[in-house]
């Protein structure tokens, strides 16, 4: 699924070199470089200098934006443009250069994307070929905070109107194959055809992943391009080693070299193709089913084929049943018996997979603090549950060894037809499931007509199923966490059914069952050996100092469910559950324990009421909040109140956001200790209450605190406010 990596520092200048791209990753990931961090400006300066080395005129675009999530920041985008010979739409290649707050080094997310573009554009320019279309290089800012840089470009930069197609390079882990995902408001038909013409050597893509992606709340910069400007695009993102995502482990050493090579293998052929393609005519009303398979690369066909293919499969099944019963190869009792092992294997393996995460976190409670839901030994756990599923399958079918193979095939075909019918109706992107089913139908045809079929023929008929489905066994729990292990156990079971024409002939099913049981225990023991936290597998931990100016109280706080000695020394003695939520975080993670803390003299922000007036039936209040200490983040909550209009630093929050925001008003990710200006409009007879959460990421370095350095067997918990000093202040306007 991915190219092999070999040292290629001396590759021809006109070719993409993984080693040369790695040198960019190394420079970009020397330190965390989230918005407002010192490393952020250094990363920007490096990218600009590299683009200028190529002879490209490079500019920046700066401005406030709050995106669709109410996350305000001052983003600084980096732009360059290669002039084409034609007058058509431009090809845009992009990634983002900010890392996730506050500890991620951003090597994969998205230093790898920036490095891919820098090396790819350098190689493209080295060939001295003038493209037909302009090529816009866009390195966005503040993607991690709410796609702010993309919002700034799409809605405020004149080049956005000329963009015809965007190629976006992203990461949600530090390794594995890079998946291609499409962003379009219409059909994907033309995009798939053009992608196939570009002919990247290692395409990893399927319309099921595309359909699932559209249902998930995860967004990328391309979402803004699609929603705000109707610009189509391709995402290229890798998701394996998910435990590194947004953590201090997202560093240069842990980025998989093969994965970076895979990103380059996409960019170069797509750059060559789309820089000369007609980008004015990519829209389509047609959708295509597509999937990748070795040798054939990307296979696709239109949605119009879905129901005819299903109809052919149903017709073939009915004819085979008629033929089997007529020849007395199929018997009613045997066919009914064949449903028993199908139901047993599906129910047992489904239940085991469903309760997987609950079992693992009960046995190892520290895993609850890995908010990704994918542990360092997660790949071993996948092997554990796959081995168990195969044990159940082989042992169950061993018990039905006296039932003829043709009769055993009827139930799996029925189940797969049911699945194919459901996806054809409700999840059309998964309709390629029908392709391996024809192999199973062919297996039934052969076993009805031959008592001893050629095993190599049976193996050949099972190959499409193995090649298409086996990646899903790993993909779902890796991408969505071990709580989705049920997908792995069920896909293993369903794949077993598809290979049953071959496996049903094996005389040693019991021995194979015991072999997989042995492997289950072997991988189980291995997973236990790998279950501890150490310097190679550090445990996420969190610590906050929370000072509430309203009641002059101070607390130590943590999100951890299992404390380590480092934060336990502040919390263990008098720990208790918090009375209420303190501040928002990803995955709706709330503080788990608090404990009394000594009060420190922390300077509160200066709050200036610039305006407080009545306009008609509304009251308008304008505040300016200026930090008196170094602050990285200000979060503002309100009481339940109908805000008809809200501006933050002159950026108006959308009516949709105001209607659906619940109590959070805005989060300002602050650069250069900048002020926050709020202008709020609400009914004049309402009472407004504002709660300000002001955070600085300096708990471990602040001179008023003596917090020891976090031990090497632990890292800061991602996705939450961490290593921070938080002050809370409430304002009331009656």
Features of the shown structure:
single chain; alpha+beta; 21 helices; 23 strands
Q: What structural class do you assign from the helix and strand content?
A: alpha+beta
Count the strands? 23
State the major sheet.
Answer: 14 strands, mixed
Share of residues in helices: 40-55%
Q: Give the uncertain stretches in residue-range form.
A: none
Mean pLDDT across the residues is 94
The number of helical segments is 21
Q: Based on CA inertia axes, which overall geometry fits?
A: globular
How much of the sequence lies in strands comes to 15-25%
Distance between the termini: 63 Å
Q: Please compute the radius of gyration using only Cα atoms.
A: 29 Å
Question: What's this entry about, in short?
Answer:
With 734 residues, this protein is an alpha+beta fold. Strands 1, 2, 3, 4, 5, 6, 7, 11, 12, 13, 16, 19, 21 and 23 form a 14-stranded mixed β-sheet that branches. Strands 14-15-20-17-18 form a five-stranded antiparallel β-sheet, with no helix packed on it. It has a two-stranded antiparallel ribbon with strand order 8-9.
Structure notes:
By secondary structure, the chain is α+β, with helices and mostly antiparallel strands. Helices cover 40% and strands 21% of the residues. It contains 21 helices and 23 strands. Strands 1, 2, 3, 4, 5, 6, 7, 11, 12, 13, 16, 19, 21 and 23 form a 14-stranded mixed beta sheet that branches. Strands 14-15-20-17-18 form a five-stranded antiparallel beta sheet, with no helix packed on it. The protein has a two-stranded antiparallel sheet with strand order 8-9. A hairpin with a 3-residue loop joins strand 8 and strand 9 (297-302). Helix 1 (18-28) packs across helix 3 (107-126), helix 13 packs antiparallel against helix 19 (509-529) and helix 16 (455-480) runs antiparallel to helix 17. 49% of the residues are buried.
């Amino acid at each position: 699924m991915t190219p092999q990596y070999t040292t290629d520092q001396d590759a021809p200048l006109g070719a993409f070199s993984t080693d040369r791209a790695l040198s960019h990753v190394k420079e970009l990931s020397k330190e965390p470089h989230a918005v407002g961090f010192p490393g952020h400006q250094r990363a920007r300066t490096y990218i600009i200098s590299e683009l200028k080395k190529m002879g490209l005129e490079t500019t920046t675009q700066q401005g406030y934006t709050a995106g669709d999530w109410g996350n305000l920041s001052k983003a600084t985008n980096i732009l360059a443009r290669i002039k084409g010979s034609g007058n058509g739409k431009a090809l845009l290649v992009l990634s983002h250069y900010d890392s996730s707050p506050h500890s991620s080094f951003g090597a994969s997310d998205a230093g790898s994307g920036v490095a891919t573009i820098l090396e790819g554009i350098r190689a493209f320019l080295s060939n001295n070929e003038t493209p037909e279309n302009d090529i816009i290089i866009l390195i966005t800012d503040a993607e991690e905070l709410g796609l702010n840089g993309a919002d700034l470009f799409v809605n405020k930069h004149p080049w956005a109107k000329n963009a015809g197609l965007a190629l976006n390079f992203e990461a949600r882990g530090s390794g594995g194959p890079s998946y291609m995902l499409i962003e379009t408001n219409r059909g994907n038909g033309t995009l798939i055809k053009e992608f196939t013409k570009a002919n990247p050597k290692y395409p990893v893509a399927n319309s099921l992943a595309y359909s699932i992606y559209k249902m998930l709340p995860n967004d990328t910069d391309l979402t803004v391009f699609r929603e705000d400007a109707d610009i189509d695009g391709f995402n290229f993102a890798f998701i394996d080693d998910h435990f590194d995502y947004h953590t201090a482990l997202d560093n240069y050493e842990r980025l998989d070299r093969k994965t970076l090579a895979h990103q380059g293998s996409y960019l170069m052929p797509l750059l060559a193709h789309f820089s000369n393609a007609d980008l004015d005519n990519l829209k389509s009303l047609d959708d295509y089913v597509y999937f990748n398979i070795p040798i054939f690369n990307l296979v696709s066909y239109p949605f119009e084929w879905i129901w005819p293919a299903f109809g052919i499969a149903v017709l073939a099944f009915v004819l085979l049943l008629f033929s089997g019963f007529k020849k007395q190869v199929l018997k009613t009792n045997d066919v009914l018996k064949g449903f028993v092992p199908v139901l047993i294997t599906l129910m047992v393996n489904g239940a085991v997979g469903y309760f997987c995460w609950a079992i693992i976190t009960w046995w190892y409670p520290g895993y609850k603090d890995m908010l990704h839901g994918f542990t360092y030994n997660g790949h071993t756990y996948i092997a554990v549950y796959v081995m168990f599923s195969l044990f159940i399958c082989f042992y169950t079918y061993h018990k039905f060894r006296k039932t003829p193979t043709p009769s055993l095939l009827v139930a799996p075909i029925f189940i797969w037809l049911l699945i194919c019918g459901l996806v054809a109706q409700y999840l059309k992107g998964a309709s390629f499931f029908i392709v391996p089913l024809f192999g199973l139908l062919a297996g039934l045809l052969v076993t009805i007509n031959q008592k001893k079929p050629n095993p190599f023929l049976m193996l050949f008929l099972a190959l499409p199923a193995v090649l298409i489905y086996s990646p899903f066994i790993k993909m779902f729990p890796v991408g969505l966490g071990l709580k989705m292990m049920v997908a792995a156990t069920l896909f293993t079971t369903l794949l077993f059914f598809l290979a049953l024409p071959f496996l049903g002939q094996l005389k040693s099913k019991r021995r194979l069952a015991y072999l997989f049981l042995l492997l289950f225990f072997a991988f189980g023991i291995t997973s236990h050996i790998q279950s501890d936290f150490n310097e190679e597998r550090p445990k996420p931990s969190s610590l906050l100092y929370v000072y509430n100016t309203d009641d002059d109280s101070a607390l130590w706080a943590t999100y951890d469910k299992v404390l380590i000695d480092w934060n336990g020394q502040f919390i263990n003695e008098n720990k208790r559950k918090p009375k209420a939520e303190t501040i928002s975080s990803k995955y709706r993670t709330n503080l788990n324990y608090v404990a009394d803390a000594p009060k420190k003299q922390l300077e509160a922000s200066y709050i200036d009421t610039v305006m407080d007036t009545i306009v008609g039936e509304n009251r308008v209040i304008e505040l300016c909040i200026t930090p008196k200490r170094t602050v990285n983040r200000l979060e503002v909550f309100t009481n339940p109140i109908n805000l008809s209009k809200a501006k933050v630093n002159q950026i108006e929050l959308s009516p949709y956001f105001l209607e659906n925001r619940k109590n959070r008003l805005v989060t300002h990710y602050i650069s250069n200790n900048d002020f926050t200006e709020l202008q709020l409009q609400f009914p004049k007879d309402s009472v407004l209450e504002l709660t300000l959460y002001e955070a600085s990421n300096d708990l471990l370095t602040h001179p008023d605190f003596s917090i020891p350095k976090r031990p090497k067997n632990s890292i800061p918990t991602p996705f939450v406010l961490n290593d921070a000093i938080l002050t809370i202040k409430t304002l009331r306007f009656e």
